[in-house]
Amino acid sequence: MSNHSPLGSVGATQTAIGEELADVTKKHKRTAALRQWWNDRSRLQQWLMLLVVVALAYLLPVINPPLITTEPANDFAISCFNMALYALVALGLNVVVGQAGLLDLGYIGFFAVGAYVAALWTSSDSTFVHIPYLATLPLAMIVTVVFGIALGLPTLRLRGDYLAIVTLGFGEIIRLLATIIPGLKGNTGFQNLGRPPGTNADGEALFTASNGLPWYWLVVTIIIIVAVLLGNLERSRVGRAWIAIREDEDAAEIMGVPTFNFKLAAFGTGAAIGGLAGALMGGQVGFVNNQKFDVPTSILFLAAVVLGGRGNKVGVILGGAIVAYIPLRFTELAAYKYLIFGIVLVLLMIFRPQGLFPAKAHLLTYGSRIRRWVKKEQAPAQPEGGPPPGSAPPAPGGSTAQSTRRARKET
Amino acid sequence: MPEAQAPEQEFAINEEAAVAPEREIAVSEGEPLVEVTDLTVTFGGLTALDHVSFDIRRGEILGLIGPNGAGKTTCFNAMTGVYRASSGDVRLEGQTLLGKKKHQITRAGLARTFQNIRLFGEMSALENVAVGLDARHRTGMIGAMLRLPRHYREEKQIIERGMELLDFVGIADRALHPARDLPYGYQRRLEIARALATDPKLLCLDEPAAGFNPAEKEELMALIRTVRDEGYTVLLIEHDMKLVMGVTDRIVVLEFGKKIADDVPSAIQQDPAVIAAYLGEEADDVDA
Known about the structure:
The complex is a heterodimer of chains A (411) and B (288). Chain A is mostly helical. Chain A has 16 helices and no strands. With 288 residues, chain B is α/β, with parallel strands linked by helices. In chain B, the strands form 2 sheets. In chain B, strands 6-7-8-3-9-10 form a 6-stranded mixed β-sheet, with helices on both faces. The radius of gyration of chain B is 20 Å and the shape is globular. Chain B: GO terms for molecular function: ATP binding; ATP hydrolysis activity; L-isoleucine transmembrane transporter activity; L-phenylalanine transmembrane transporter activity; L-valine transmembrane transporter activity.
């Protein structure tokens, strides 16, 4: 034990760690620089820039930019609606897959339940009590949460691949139920779903199947509300619990996280958003039957999350929009979309496993305050007094750091 | 997304604040805090732990030692609910811990670290500690989504106490680094900070100095002594005998799942059974 030089081995380890760190730094330099730049802006600047982005998002179908537009093959406003819808779905699935790390291959099931809720309570083909369309949106969320919990209670004890297989089955069960149960009308489906109220100057209905613009604006507004609420969850005990479960479920449990409850909460949250998206889809199309809720679409939703960057809200919104956009823009490629997304995903896994837009989630409400504090402490100019906590040069492998408090007491 | 507006206020580490436990402990100093009685764990036909009994007194550092495979970690896992005990009992302040879920045991006051580091790699050091602090928090889905007053109170406590704990273990300068990018020594210390964050009555450390060189081990032992001085009770697994002798108040020795000794370090050193089981075997020391 004592016949080798401890210092020599430490030196070697430190060099190794140093190289490793440099490698990591290089890899994340670009995104890190962008993130640093964003974090350095003041709160006001951040809000103003977001405002511009949001305004552009709202105006996208009005501007109808050449080259980007999906016309003449597809109406651009309706295309935009579909992109927004996929973005909303990706946002919901991201809670389950990206944050809590639960692989859900049957997310389409929740989407279907939401669409059928809208159909059953508003369609002229339904014998149910009819309620206003907008009331079906919260109703769809409540019903899908019930489905989510019913699925989650027995299955969330499973992990990884096993959970994926069970959820895959769930998605198929919902689709088959829609075929088998006579009340759900199988392939015939439901026509004339309800719509949000409102007429334009000519007295015609504002929300129609052929006019995508108001639908698009409705979904974008919903996305903003959902993103803000999910952001609140992310920077709270709930978001931290989800990420902790994703990182190491056993360690999370031993650190006092009631993992089962939080997994159920993630499942329920994801289900609610999926149901909401389903109800919106039903309303815009005005028709719901059993043909739209197949497994490949479910995988496409998952692809949107993985493509955008698991766990990153902005990333998955973009991922969802891209997955919806490509087959609409390049209609000649639409038939090959699964082939293309398959290849893209394989390439992505090889070259950029963190997704197109990776970002480290901020999980603390007062995180920016700490960031400012650390920056201040690490500023080189220091007034008289003991060495501040952050002033030590970040030497790689510097595991010998003393508690600064104790160091100060000793001097 | 920028964070929602919150009352702006500068933040600073309170240098003199103690990290002492904030909870009421039912037993007084020197009385048994944890009682392990006849604890037995079997895996199929193998008895990994055989009727082991010992007390952990409040305010002491108890060493749990033994050669590789003696059942130290098994004992730990049975206490913290990872393994199910076949028979026997583990009581914290007179309340049995058996049958409780792992997260309930942690909230009851028994926190642990892992022999093979198990941090939440993607999360920053401070966020890792925040998960530990959350064990005492009660904000749920609604409270977090709507940001009710309790949420703000708890978040504030997280940055204040969280940074205090990181400073206490000596890694506050890397508070915002992802845990997986931290140097090995920092990761070990972060594990201790995260366990302390749950505000434990008993802190269980599973070979916290594994992979350290002798100088680093000394520093860590000093830290553990400081943890005790702040008012925590510590259970320490370590199989480097020299190290354990210096830091512990009392030592329990396991061999082949049985307790062979339970005494103060100086007496343990003289115990012939311990010497035969442990000190004679140089081979056990090489991976330290």
